[in-house]
Structure prediction request, 635 residues.
Amino acid sequence: MSLIRLDNVYKIYNEGMDNQVNALDGVTLDIDAGEFIAIIGTSGSGKSTMMNILGCLDVPTRGEYYLDGVSVGERRPQELSELRSRRIGFIFQGYNLIPSLNVWQNVALPLTYQHVRADERRRRALEALDQVEIADKAESRPNQLSGGQQQRVAIARAMCTGSPVLMADEPTGALDSKTGAQVLALMRELNREKGTTVILITHDVGIAAQADRTVRVMDGRIVHDSLWDGILIPDLKVAAAR
Amino acid sequence: MNALMMALDSIREKKGRSFLTMLGIIIGVTAVLVLVALVSGYNADITAYYEKLGVNKVTVELTWYDQSRAEDVMGLLYAYGNGELSGMVTGVSPDQKTSKTVKYRSGSVDSSTIYFGSDQWADCNNYTLDSGRDILDYDIEGRSRVCVIGAYVADALFQYADPIGETIYLNGDPFVVVGTYYQKDGSGEDSMDNAVVVPYSLSRSLLGTGYLTSYTVKVGKSDDVDTVIGKLDSYLTGQIDSSVGTYTLTDGNAAMTASNDEMTSMSVVLGGIAGIALLVGGIGIMNIMLVTVTERTREIGIKKSIGAPRREIVTQFLVEAAILSGLGGLIGIGLGFLLSAVLGKAMYGLILFPSTLITVGAVCFSVVIGIVFGIYPAAKASNLQPVDALRAD
Prediction:
C-alpha cells in the first residue's frame, strides 16, 4: 500500500455553470513513503490544486484520496487539521512565517496544536533549527532574516513535528539560485537521513530535475510520470483512445 | 495560556487602536459606576435630611367645619399618646409654625421660624437641649412668654454671651430665653437651627387663632408606625364628630421612602442608558475584531495549514475580544471610582464609592459583551478555508 494514493480525483469549480473549471480532471497518482517527487506544471496547470488536496488543505470534488490507506474525503475539518498537524509539513514560496512570533516560536507553533509541553516545544524547536543550521537566530523576528534564512526556518517548522510528508510549494521561487540550491540540498538530506517523503511543487524544470521522480501536470491531468518512462501512463492511454 | 499571550501581544502592538476600541467600554463602565454612586449619594443625602427632621413621625392634620365645636385635639393626642400608646409613642406636639423677626438689643434675625411646641416638641423634631431648660407643661398652662432658641439664633444674637434669662423680641413681643438647642443642621440662615420654640398655648395671641390644625406624633420604632396610625385612626374617629371636623394621618417615613424609591427607579433608567453605552462599546469591539480578522487572514491560513484546529483560532479571537473589553472595564472602574469620589465630594460632601456589586457586575458584563461580540468575528476567522486564507495578501 502506498503512502499517498489519488484515485481518479476531480476538483471542479463552478460545476454545471458556463465557467466550469476542472482544475483536476481525473488524476490518479501513487506516492510511496520515502520518495522525493516533483510535481511540475505551468501556472494554471492544476499543480497547486493538487498540492492543496495532497496537503489536506482542500478536499476533492470527486474521487478518493487515501493517506496511509485512509480516505481523506470522509474526514471532518477537525480531523483534517489533525492530519495536517501530524502527517504533513508545509513549505511555501512566501515562507509564511508569523511576523509577530520570533523564530523559535514560529518553529514551535505546530507543536502547540499537538499539546506538547512548553519546555519540550522549545527544546524540539531549537533542535530543528540546529539541523537547518540557523539556531543562532532563534530569538530573531522573521523580518530580520534573509529569504534563505526564512525558508530554513520554515523547513525547521515543517520537520519539528516529525511529519512523514514534506510538501514544498515553489520553495525556491523567491530565492537566488545559490540559496535555492542550499534549501533543496537540505530537503534532500531530510529525505535521505530521515526517510521523509518530499513532494516538490514547481514550474522550474531545473529544480524538478533534482527529484527522483517527476510528474508533469497539464490542464488538470498528469501527462508524464518519469516512473513510467517509456510506457504510456494510464491517463495518456485514455487521451490517446479519444 | 498561549492564546492569552498572543492576544496581549497583538493588543500591545496596536496600542492606539486598542485604546480607541476600549473607549466605548471605558465610558460605559465609568458612566454606570458614577451614576449609581451619585444616586446612592443622593439617597444618603435625602435620608440624612429626613433623619435631621426626625424620622418615624405621624402627622395629624385637621379641618374644622364648625370651629365653635372644635375639640382640643392636642389634649386628646397628649392623653392617648402618653396613656394607651405610651409604649410606642415617645412624643406629641403641635406642628405649627410662623415666621418672625427676632431682635435682641441691636442685633436681629430677619426671618426666624417660630414653632408652637409642647414640652415634647424637641423630641418630636430631633432637637437636643444644649443649655437651660426646655418648654415645660407649666409654661403651656400658664402661657408663659418663654422660648428655647436654635443654635443659629443663639449665635447670631448672643455670639459668646449666655442667652439664658435674656429677653428677645418676636415682632416686638418680649420673650425670655430659657434654653438653647445644639446645632443640628450646619447652623446657616436657611438651616433648621434658625428656630425659636414657644409654648403652643400662645398661638392665639401670636397667630390670632387658637385652632391649631397640624400635630406631630413621634413613634419610637419604625416598625410601630403602622400600628400607631391604625390605633390613632380608630381613636380619633370616636372622638371627633364627622359633622364638626375631619382629620388625616400621614406617615412621615413614607415621604422619605417615596423619595428614595423615586431615585432608585431613576437610577435604573440612568443605568439603562449607561448600559446602552456599553452595548455600543461592544459593537465597536466587534467591528475592530472583524478588521483584525481580515488583517490576519493570512496568519490564520498559515496556522490552519500547520494544523491549528478551529477551536484554537476561535479561542485566540475570543480571548483578544474579552481582554479588550475586560481591560476597558478595569480602566472604567478606575475612572468610575475617581469620578464618584470627586463628584460625590463636590455635590454631597461625601466620599462616594461605587458598590462592590455594581463594580463586579460591570466588569463581568463588559467581559461578557466582549465575548458575545467576539463570537461573530471569531467564527468568521475559524471558518476561513486554509487555501483561501493562504491566498490572501
